[in-house]
Write a sequence for this structure.
């Protein structure tokens, strides 16, 4: 996930990251870089059950350049949406697995979920990958 460091408290070895207009606390022991973090740094991190880990500078996506194709993601959704192919391509692995399970449990009716999402991706209503980057 991508966020921005809002505060750093070196005395307490804690800080906060702003992600989707919400602030999340983190421990500086989760910082993965050699250089100390600074307020305003754009960071890449993992979040599980509200706990932030593996925080590093988001230098590889500093300008938020699109890297995934909107057309390819949409076509994967339309053609292979039942298997969650478009979700795996965009980095949403949990949703991809959920789509496979729904397709199996509904005897194939879950195909509609992937098809509809494929259309939404192509029309631009779904326009970001799992890291928050816009689709190209």
């Amino acid at each position: 996930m991508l966020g921005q460091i809002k505060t750093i408290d070196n005395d307490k070895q804690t800080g906060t990251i702003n992600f989707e207009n919400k602030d999340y606390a983190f421990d500086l022991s989760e910082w993965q870089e050699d250089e100390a973090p600074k307020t305003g740094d754009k960071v890449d991190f993992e979040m599980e059950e509200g706990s932030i880990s593996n925080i590093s500078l988001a230098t590889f996506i500093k300008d938020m350049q699109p890297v995934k194709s909107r057309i390819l993601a949409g076509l994967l959704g339309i053609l292979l949406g039942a298997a969650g192919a478009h979700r795996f391509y965009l980095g949403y692995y949990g949703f991809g697995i959920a789509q496979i399970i729904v397709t199996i449990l509904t005897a194939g009716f879950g195909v509609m979920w992937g098809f509809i999402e494929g259309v939404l991706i192509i029309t631009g209503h779904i326009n970001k990958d799992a890291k928050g980057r816009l689709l190209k």
The chain has a mean pLDDT of 89. Residues 70-122 form one domain. The CA atoms of residues 74 and 119 lie 6 Å apart.
